Amino acid sequence: DVRLEDMERLFRVGDEVRVVAGPYLGLEGHIIQISDDMFHVCQDVSKEEPPPESESLQVGDHIEVLAGEHFGKCGIVEWIPMGGTMLWFRDANPVLAGDDIVSSAGSWRIQVPVTLVRRIKLPDTIKYTKEKGYDIRPGDVVSVARGPEYQRTGVVRSVDFPNARLTFLSDSDHSLIDVPITFAIKKRDANLDSFNKVIGQEVFIVGGELKGYRATLYDVASDTCTIVVHGRTRTTLKRHDVVTR
Asked: Cβ atoms within 10 A of the Cβ of 190, count?
């Protein structure tokens, strides 16, 4: 028999681990590099159900007025005060004017109680699926379709899958903006040209039958990549099963 305190756990590249202390407490992923007593971990996509989407009305939502003076009018929400009971929306087809209608850049802005409208025509934002999780990654170009950052666009810098949020660099002022993933629309996948610099370099396989191996990256496609493990022929793998340094 051997006492537990006399044993030491040996970790290897490709091992699946969970952080149990420190600022990354709870993070799960695969070891991609070991440097002395420091591990480099590639975070896994969360296997849990995502946080529920907000059902509250947001700037950018398409709405229809259900009662009152403006019954039947439709438009896009332009402003909702924090904790307020009224909202302002841009009428898609202005016909009549009243005391609570303000002309703005060729459109009509109407004020109505929040309780008198319903959301319609949901935008095609990024959705969670059990097959792919959230189909978004750093380098993708996104546009915000809902919320205070409505119509902002930029390139994704990081994705927080467990909390269903992403951070992108705004095209307009180059600030970093954090929004719920489900408030964004993916406009374009990451530019594959940015991966050219790692072709021919060493990569780590973190999924599939070759998990744990190191390999040389040979080619990159939209969803797959071609690698060569030493002593083997070329193999095509899913991109999410391969990570760079």
From this structure: 17
CA distance 18 to 6: 22
The span from the CA of 174 to the CA of 172, in Å, is 6
What is each CA distance from 43 to 46, 48, 114, in whole angstroms? 9, 14, 40
The per-residue pLDDT for range 130-168, each reduced to its tens digit, is 777 888 888 889 999 999 999 999 988 888 888 889 999
pLDDT at 201: 84
Give bridge partners of residue 101 from the DSSP assignment.
Answer: 110
**How would you label 9-21 residue by residue, b for 16+ Cβ within 10 Å and e otherwise?**
eeeebbbeeeeee
Confidence of residue 95 (pLDDT cuts 50, 70, 90): low
- Total length of the chain: 245
DSSP run (H or E) holding 40: strand 38-43
Cβ contacts of 6-15, under 8 Å, gap ≥ 24: 11/39, 12/212, 13/204, 13/212, 13/214, 14/204, 14/205, 14/206, 14/211, 14/212, 14/213, 15/212
Phi, psi of 74 (to 5 degrees): -130, 155
Token readout for 9 is 């756990």
| Closest listed residue to residue 44, CA positions, set 26, 68, 58 | 26
Contact 218, 202 (CB under 8 A): no
| Percentages (nearest 5) of helix, strand, coil residues in the chain | 10, 40, 50
